[in-house]
Write a structure and sequence with these properties.
alpha/beta; Rossmann fold; Immunoglobulin-like; six-stranded mixed sheet; 24 strands; 23% strand
């Protein structure tokens, strides 16, 4: 999923002849000692999880640049990692742009980085490491042809831009703002909607509660801060949306996020406003002090003052809705006491208008969670060793990250990967496969009918997972292999079709250092989310690759009989 989403973004930006720089390449999963720590992982984990997030995007969309990570990978700084930057990125995947470092501290040794395939140090070194390059060429430790090739890769991108740029392009800031609102409306995830409280009708008296209703947290902390053209809060949106009666909406700040400290006066006014309304909508989430670049989160909790406010408001007003502004999963100790929850994430400068449009039904939420919300941080697969020790962070969970871990362990979670509700309902049927037995080189066409069985137009995200049935390799119980969002009017049925190739069934085999499909049965599953299988069909896939097999005097007859069609190699050492 990550490579598909990244690829779509790269495709859109570069279609306007503007280069992109996907980052961080790769395994930059912690802020603690990010300039010196080494991400330690095995080859299979690297290929199936962390490289795979870049692979499809790089091969298909050809980003102009790639930004490498600060950290080391198995002991080698990413800026100096020839295996990653040259062998994999350029030779195997066909990347033809230039590699740049992250800002300040992501370069270790400029000469060794050039040899590995890192072209550009950012920001400017003010000539310091440039002199190192000159000296290395002069004393023969750096072949001048390496420098020439690096310059060529860099200049090719510059010329590509200059020769294709639209010199008459102008910013259409108001139009772009409207586009930002529409995009956020597509991304908001409806997590709960008890008694169909949402969407709200315009004649309801509604109390908007929480600082973020007036000053939304709409972007990340640290270097991800940008200067927006303008910021649109929910209270701003009430003023210009014709479908909302602003006279029916009151506001109470409820909390401040400068520090996690309850303000009894603000909370009391919020509870009073909620009690006097038909519905209370609380705008809450994580402040910069709880999540930002430069440090790692120590827990999944929201500020205690916000949790207490939600509990108090919900007690006074049974029709309570929570809108979350946060960059990552949070615990929700109050979930059973509120009627509805909207996950807005960090929704950009137009988030307020998008949220209000969803609250009042001008937009039907169709976002799906791209991550699992666990019940608690102790449930996460890396809980026991996250951050590492002695500047080494061992990825001991292997390929069992995210939903692959929770589904394989059949763990209860707060909300599973792929989860999301709608103001309408959908049914699935007629799962059709064009073949049930085939060789790995053959494509499989899968189609399924989706019907809008509700009363309003909505968009459904059809999710296809593949589940290996048996086999000799330890694998996740299911993995997402394709997805598509489709819009349906009430009563409308559409057929969604997917084409699967061998990668849908493959794992990374460390003996042959390549993708390998194991002969056997696989289940094609159409799912509502990672934990809810709706339809399934089993197929039989035949491998076309014979793995090398070494027999010894200690090999069992069972092992030999399993591979009796192969020509054995007897190792008599």
């Amino acid at each position: 999923m990550s490579t598909e989403m990244a690829g779509a973004l790269v495709h859109g930006v570069q279609s306007k002849h503007i280069g992109t720089s996907p980052k961080h390449f790769m395994a930059n999963n912690q802020e603690y000692h990010r300039l010196t720590s080494s991400s330690e992982m095995d080859e299979r984990t690297m290929r199936e999880i962390y490289l795979a997030s870049f692979e499809g995007m790089v091969k298909k969309e050809k980003p102009w640049t790639i930004m490498n990570a600060y950290n080391k990978l198995n002991g080698t700084y990413l800026c100096e990692n020839k295996e990653m930057l040259t062998d994999v990125l350029r030779r195997e995947w066909g990347f033809d742009g230039y590699v740049m470092t992250d800002w300040g501290g992501a370069m270790n040794d400029r000469v060794e980085a050039l040899k590995a395939g890192c072209n550009l140090e950012m920001p400017s070194c003010e000539g310091a490491t440039d002199a190192e390059i000159v000296a290395a060429v002069q004393d023969g430790t750096l072949d001048e042809s390496v420098l020439d090739k690096s310059c060529e890769e860099y200049l090719n991108v510059i010329f590509k831009y200059e020769e294709n740029r639209d010199k008459n392009a102008v910013f259409q800031r108001e139009k772009d703002h409207e586009t930002a609102r529409e995009i956020e409306e597509e991304c908001i995830v409806l997590l709960k909607n008890e008694d169909a409280l949402l969407p709200l009708s315009a004649d309801k008296k509604v109390a908007f509660i929480g600082k973020y209703a007036e000053e939304p947290r709409y972007q990340g902390g640290g270097s991800s801060h940008i200067n927006s053209f303008k910021t649109e809060s929910a209270m701003d949106a009430v003023e210009f949306l014709a479908t909302v009666k602003k006279e029916n909406i009151t506001f109470a700040k409820g909390f401040d996020d400068v520090e996690d400290k309850a303000d009894e006066a603000l909370a009391a006014k919020a509870v009073e406003a909620a009690a006097n309304a038909d519905v209370a909508v609380i705008f809450a989430g994580l402040p910069d002090s709880f999540e930002s670049e430069g440090y790692d989160r120590k827990h999944l909790g929201m500020p205690n003052c916000q949790n207490a406010l939600i509990e108090a408001v919900a007690e006074a007003q049974p029709n309570t809705i929570v809108v979350l502004h946060n960059g990552a999963p949070v615990e929700m100790p109050w979930l059973g006491k509120v009627k509805a929850v909207l996950e807005a994430y960090l929704g950009g400068q137009a988030v307020g208008g998008a949220v209000v449009n969803v609250l009042y039904g001008n937009a039907n939420p169709s976002g799906r969670l791209a991550e699992t919300f666990p019940l608690r941080i102790q449930d996460t697969p890396c809980y026991l060793n996250y951050g590492g020790e002695h500047d080494k962070s061992v990825y001991s969970e292997g390929v069992f990250v995210g939903y692959r871990y929770y589904t394989s362990k059949e763990m209860e979670v707060l909300f599973p990967f792929g989860y999301g509700l709608s103001y309408t309902t959908f049914s699935y049927g007629n799962l059709t496969l064009d073949k049930k037995e085939f060789k790995e080189s053959e494509k499989l066409l899968v189609s399924v009918d989706v019907t809008n069985t509700g009363a309003c137009t909505g968009k459904e995200v059809v999710q296809l997972y593949v589940a290996p049935k048996g086999g000799t390799i330890i694998r996740p119980v299911r993995e997402l292999k394709a997805f598509e969002k489709t819009e349906l009017a009430p009563g409308e049925t559409k057929t969604v079709t997917f084409e699967l190739d061998s990668r849908a069934y493959a794992y990374w085999n460390t003996e042959i250092h390549d993708w390998h499909v194991e002969t056997g049965a696989y289940e094609i599953q159409i799912c509502r989310n990672a934990q809810e299988v709706l339809l399934s069909e089993e197929v039989q896939v035949e491998s076309e690759t014979v793995l090398p097999k070494v027999y010894t005097l200690n090999s069992t007859m069972g092992e030999i009989m399993q591979t009796r069609k192969e020509k054995p190699y007897w190792n008599r050492q």
